[in-house]
């Protein structure tokens, strides 16, 4: 119990380091390219299944990078992904129940979906974005989204 209490106090004091995951992109790209190369040389072709799996891996990497500022470990990323996924599905189901109309007339489905995801992430692990490494990653993600949207 003392061991757990020590970790809780360390986390609450704000001195716990953020979840860095510095090598996520290079490791992902290496594993994906080796997998595709092995499949292509072994099977002599790349089929729709390979493209589908690669698209899922790219989506998983994107979700990991977007949720990483809210987490202190890879386990947090997994639980937060499940929580956010449930919130995103609930938002889409509510949109369908309303007859394909958004909650407010100014909103779109995409905005309602983003709002549900952001609220769920902030509600579940929002305090983690105050840690310096997570705050820097959070800021980087928003700068990237801003550049993509123009």
The domain count comes to 1
Rg, Cα atoms, Å: 19 Å
Helix amount, in percent?
Answer: over 70%
Euclidean distance between termini CA atoms: 51 Å
Shape: globular
Order of helices and strands: HHHHHH
Spans of at least 5 consecutive residues with low confidence: 11-17
In total, the number of strands is 0
Largest sheet: none
Average pLDDT for all residues: 77
Name the beta content range: under 5%
Per DSSP, the total helix count is 6
Structural class: mainly alpha
What does this structure look like?
The chain crosses the membrane at residues 20-38, 44-63. Keywords: Membrane, Transmembrane, Transmembrane helix. Helix 2 (24-43) runs antiparallel to helix 3 (48-67) and helix 4 (74-97) packs antiparallel against helix 5. The chain has one domain. By secondary structure, it is mostly helical. Helices cover 73% and strands 0% of the residues. The chain is globular, with a radius of gyration of 19 Å. It has helices at 2-12, 24-43, 48-67, 74-97, 109-125, 132-149. Residues 11-17 have low confidence and may be disordered.
Give the topology.
Elements: H1 2-12, H2 24-43, H3 48-67, H4 74-97, H5 109-125, H6 132-149
Helix pairs in contact: 2-3, 4-5
Question: What would a concise description of this structure say?
Answer:
The chain is mainly α and 150 residues long. The chain is 73% helix and 0% strand. The protein has one domain.
